[in-house]
User: Fold these one by one.
Assistant:
Number 1:
Amino acid sequence: MYFLELMKVPRVESKLRVFSFKIQFGSQISEFRKSLNTVNSACNEVRNSLKLKEIMKKILYLGNTLNQGTARGSAIGFKLDSLLKLTDTRASTSKMTLMQYLCKVLAAKTPALVDFHLEFVSLEAATKIQLKSLAEEMQAIIKGLEKLKQELVASENDGPVSEVFRKTLKEFISVAETEVVSLTNLYSTVGRNADALALALYFGEDPALPDAHLSKLLQRS
């Protein structure tokens, strides 16, 4: 009997998708907002870390020292992800990498900076979140809400059989729209903050440091 009545409902498959979206919406929004806040917190922690800024200044000074006398010896900035290159750069006469040398100098001369990583409470969790996945999730939520609106419009011609459905869906869409607008604004903010971390440019600086200059520096240490 239930299925016979169900068959009388226009576009029953579409309505079932509406119910599925409505049921999952709360938890989906909550988890997505949590991920956005995690990435946002990590960006703020990195950008506002005074200890990291001091370390970055020393790295810039070190790079300019190594490149002294060349066109790359007066850089005023570098890409944040270029820090990873420090572990790959070593002198031809030494097993010590530039990262190891930097850590050695920091530990000896400015030990207070060595624990800078303790300021990054959200960073580890943020590294497990891909920005591409966030973009896909945001798009899925927006498209899901759009399909709900389309079904609401289509159900206006269903007659009394969809009256309760239309009323419930209309109320839900009103609430969901507010949530999605808020979420979209947060997503845009997180995107700008994440992009801002990559805006410290080399301005023509080559991250590959000359072995000859690096050899002399490591020998002096």
Note: The chain has one domain: 35-220.
Number 2:
Amino acid sequence: MRATLDAGVGWVPRDRHEQGLVPGMTVGDNTTMSVLDRLGRFGCVATGRRRGIASELIERLDIHTEGPEQPVSDLSGGNAQKVVMARALASDPRLLVLINPTAGVDVKSKESLLARMDSAREDGTAVLVVSDELDDLRHCDRVLVLFHGRVVAEHPAGWRDHELIASIEGVDHG
């Protein structure tokens, strides 16, 4: 994880419950764990600084919570996914890797997460999305279809659903 952060990569994993959150910790702890080096010196975390950064992230990602001290396990799926996204963005990554970023979240949370993905890209962050959700892929400049580790199709922004689905299913319209 440290090498990934040092390389400037933020990451939203496929499974927020198994890989994205520490359920026994608070919203504030989860959102700031990628920036512990900014929260204090000599391994000590300045509580006020952590709370301030967490509060900024909560506001920026529109996380519906009672505040940074709320246990992350109390959140809805969409808000929990926003916490994972907040942690990935907290370190101001040069590359943001999102794996199925909107899986299992409600429509409002999906819209919010996709808007945040667009904002990151507009701010100059490279965004790599790995997803089987067409809504996630609509926000991409380019979609590559892989089969057995090889690129089998490429679609620029503005692709049509049936064209992309045909590529995914291995249908050749050539």
Note: The chain has one domain: 2-140.
